[in-house]
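This part of the workshop introduces the protein records we will be handling. An example says more than a description, so a record of this kind follows:
>
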Amino acid sequence: MPSGIPSPMPTIFSNLLVSVLLAGVVAKGATGPVRADDRPLVFAADEWCPVNCTPGSEKPGFMVEIARAILEPKGYSVRYETINWARALLYTRQGHYDGVFGALREDAPDFVFPRQPMGQTRVGLFKRADSPWRYVDETSLDGRSVGLILDYAYGEDLETLLEKRTIPSYQGGDAPLDINLRKLAAGRIDLVIEDVNIFWNKAEDMELRDQFELAHVFSEEDIFLALSPAKPHSAHLAEVLSTGLDQLRASGEIDEIMTRYGLDDWK
């Protein structure tokens, strides 16, 4: 190229670069918001159906469905895994998971909690249907063995009562509720404490529903999708979840999700 004549190559490359960048913007705009971090959000918990059920199933749990209904339209990819509760808390605290489904504030007070709960638990006391025992007051619990789940929070008042009055029997592992129901049915423990909906759902699955009765309801507690204290985006996600709940409630989508599980909006 003779000197003094400007080369057209930079202009050609500049135009190509602009075209590529514009194409990328259009592509991104066509698929909705794109996160700077393309890794999926991974939430974990032990199976606690109908709050969180079998991953990959048609009904993975109402809290799983609500989280996806809020987060996926905003460009997030959501994955749900089951693991025993103690490990779910530990690994989320360490930052291996982004959050846990179905947490009470007492389960993990150091986690990041949205302003709004994503459900409610009714803590019930269950016995065998053929047992003559009845709950009258706190003294009725004296000396009774009670099936509980390791690292679950039952509320400070109830936990104090159980330590004072009963013989707690803690079960860990990957299927602790299944084991507690079998132990109750076999007479190896006297009582089980569990969320009312969770207990009946599990008893139905195990074909044991007619063997048990609800003896008493202790309390109602809010439950949350609690977020990892080790993740820098947790505070932002908490606000996204809270705002999203208002939007789902206004649109009626929460009612649609809860109806799929035979439940009503907890609010």
User: Anything to note?
Assistant: The chain has a mean pLDDT of 88. The longest helix spans residues 9-30. The beta strands are 41-45, 78-82, 99-103, 120-128, 145-149, 167-171, 191-195, 212-222, 224-227.
